[in-house]
Amino acid sequence: MTEPTQDTRVETPPGAKKALRKEVAEHITGQPTRKLFGTFGGVFTPTLLTILGVIMYLREGWVVGNAGLLGAWLIIIVAYVITTFTALSMASITTNMRIGAGGAFSIISQSLGLEVGGSIGIPLYLSQALAVAMYIFGFRSGWLWIFPDHSPLLIDLGVFVVLFVIAYISADLAFKVQYLIIAIILVSLVAIGATLFMDAPRYPIQWWGEFPGEAQSGFKGIGFWVLFAVFFPAATGIMAGANMSGDLKSPRRSIPVGTLTAVGISLLIYLFLAWWLAVSASPEELLKNYNILIDRAAWGPAVVAGLLAATFSSALSSLVGGPRILQALAEHRIIPASRWFEKRTARGEPRNAMLLTGVIVLSAMMLRDLNAIAPLVTMFFLVTYGMINVVLLLEQSLRLVSFRPLLRIPRFVPMIGALGCIAVMMIVSPTFGIISLIMVIVLHGYLIRKHLRAPFGDVRSGLFMAMAEWAAKRVQTLTGSREKSWKANLLVPVDETNQALTRYELLRDIAYPKGFVRLLGLAEGKQQSEMHDKLPLAAERFVEDGVFATWTVVESATFSENLAAGLEALGSAFFRSSAIVLNYPKNEQRAAGVQRIIESAQRYHLGVLLLVGMDETLPQRGDVNVVFERPQTGWKISLNLGQADLALLIGYKLKRNWETDLILTAALDEAAEEAQALDYLKAVAELARIPNARLTTTSTETAATITLFSMTAESNLGILHERAQATGTPCIFAMDGGNENALS
Length: 744
Known about the structure:
It contains 28 helices and 10 strands. The chain has a 10-stranded mixed beta sheet, with helices on both faces. It is an alpha/beta fold.
C-alpha cells in the first residue's frame, strides 16, 4: 500500500507578496519605501481641483455676459481643444516610457535631453511657485466677500502658513485635505444646480453677445480673443497630477487615465455652468456682478465655501507639485546646490526643495500684486504644453522601434496642440511670449555648457540620424560637382597605436574645424586589445579639440588587402572620407602595399596624403610651402590646377590654423620660364583667394617648416622620397581624388 502524498503547499499569509516587494525595493534603493499614490488620489483629484478654480466661480458669468452662450461655449471648447490635445499627447508619451520624477520635466528630458528638459523645467517650477501666490490672492478675494473688514495681508499670510504646514508635513496629508475640498466643491455645484428644480426666474438666452467689456473700463467694448485670454487659464492645470509622477504607484497608467478623466469632467462642468448662467441672469447682471453664482445659487454660502476651497486646493496642488519638480532638477545636477535640494526624507518628502519654494511664494506675496507677471506664468505653462506636443510629434515622425505607446493618437493631435499653444501665447501677450522663449533659450545655452550626463537615452540621436539620412539621400540625387562642399574628412589607417598619437596635432590642424577624422585600426592578434584601449582615447582627444572623430578596429592579416577592403566598404558610407592619410613605407613589402592602396584610392575617387619624414617628430608650426609642377599645358591658368588642388587646399588649411604664411613655389624645368611661372602663381593666389601669399621659384630660399607636393597614382615612391629629402623639411605628397578644386 502506497503512502499518501504529502501536501507541500504552504498557505501564504495575506499581504506577504506586497511585503516581499517592499523588502526588495528597500534593498535595491537602500532607502525605506515611501507611500505612493494611485490614480484617483495622485492624479485625478489634484488635476480636477486645479482646473476648477477661481475663474469658474468669479469670471465665467462675465464671459457669458459678453460673448453670449454660443460665444462662451466656443471659447471653452477652443481652450479645451488645446489642453485636451496636450493631455492626449502627454498620455501617449507616458504609456511609452518609465516616467521619472518631475512630470513634464521627465517627459521632455527623456525625449530631447536634459538640456531641453531643464530649460523648460526651471521656468515650469517658477510658474508653479508663483501660481501659489496668485491662488492665495484669489482665496483672499472670496474671504473678503464674507469678511470685508479683515486685513488682506493677514489673510494672505494665514493662508500661506496653513498651506505650507500641510504640504511640509507630507503629500499624503495634502491629498487627504483635498478629498475634503472636492466634497465641498461638489456641494457648491449641487447648490448651483438645485435652482433648476426650484421656482427660480428664467431669462431668455442670449446666444451671441455684443462684447461690451467690463464696468471698470466703462463698457468700451472687448474682443473675442481678449475674453479667450481671460478664460484660458481655467483650462490649464493638466500638469498637477503629472508633477507627482515620482510619487505614483503606476505613472504609466495613472497619468493618462487620471488626467483625461479630470479634463473630461471639468469640460462638462464648464459647459453646464455657462448654460446655467445664461438662463439664470440677464446679460447686464452677468457683466456687472462677478458674484452671480453666489447670489443665484440655492444656497449661497455653499458656493462661497466652494470658491474658497477651489482656490485653496489649487494653491495646495502647486505647493506640493512645485518642490517635486525642483527636486527632480536637482537629481540631475541642473540647478546650483543640487546635492542639498535633491534630498528627501525617509518618507520621500522633498523638504529642502519645499523650503525654497516657500521663500519664493512668500516673496511673491510681498509684491501684493502679481498682475504684472501673471501673463509670464501663463506663458511658462504654454511653453511646457507646446513642448510636450512637439515631443510626441517628433517621436511619431521618427518612427523608431523604441516608440511603442500603448495609447496611439493621430499625428494631427500633437500638431494642433503645439500650434494652438503658440497661437495662445501670441494672443494672450506677445511681449511676455517672446520674453519666456528668450528665457528658455538662455537657460538651454547655459545647460549645454554644463555638459550634463543623463542616466537615460533620448531621441536626439534618432532625430539627428533621420536628418542625416535625409540629407545624404538628397545629396545622392543631386547632379553636378561637389567641389564647393569639400572638407578635410580624413581616413587614418592605424597599425601601430603610437602612429595616431604622434601625428595627432598635424591631423587635427588639417581637419579643423569642419572636417572629421576616422581612425581605422588594423590589428593583428594581441594588438586588438591595445587598439581598443588607445583608439577611443585618441578619438576623444580629437573631439575635445573641436574635431569630430570616430574609431573602429578590424582584424587584418595584411595591411594593404584589408585596407583595400575597408575602402570598398566605406565607399558607400553616408559621410565619406575625402582623403586617406598614409605613412611612407619602411620596407619594400610595405611599399608594394602602399602602392596598391594609392591605386585603390584613385578608383574610389579618394584623395591621398602621403606623409614623408615624420617618423619621429612632427613639423613645427611655421611657414607652409606648396610646390607646383609645370602643368601639361604650360604655365597657363585654367579652371583647375591639374593635380595640385588637394595640396593647395591642405596648405591653406595649415596656414589658417597655424596663423602663418603660405608660400607658393614653382618648380622650374627651365630658368627662362620663371616670369611665366610667377604670373601663374599670381593667378593661382588671386583665383584661390589666398591673401598675402609669397610667390617664389626653386632658386629662392623658402625657409618653410613643411612642404606639400602633388603626386599621381603612377608616381614612384622612391623618387618621392628623394624629393622630400632634398627639401630638408617634412613633406606631404597629395593625390587629388577628383572632388577637389582649390579655385572653386
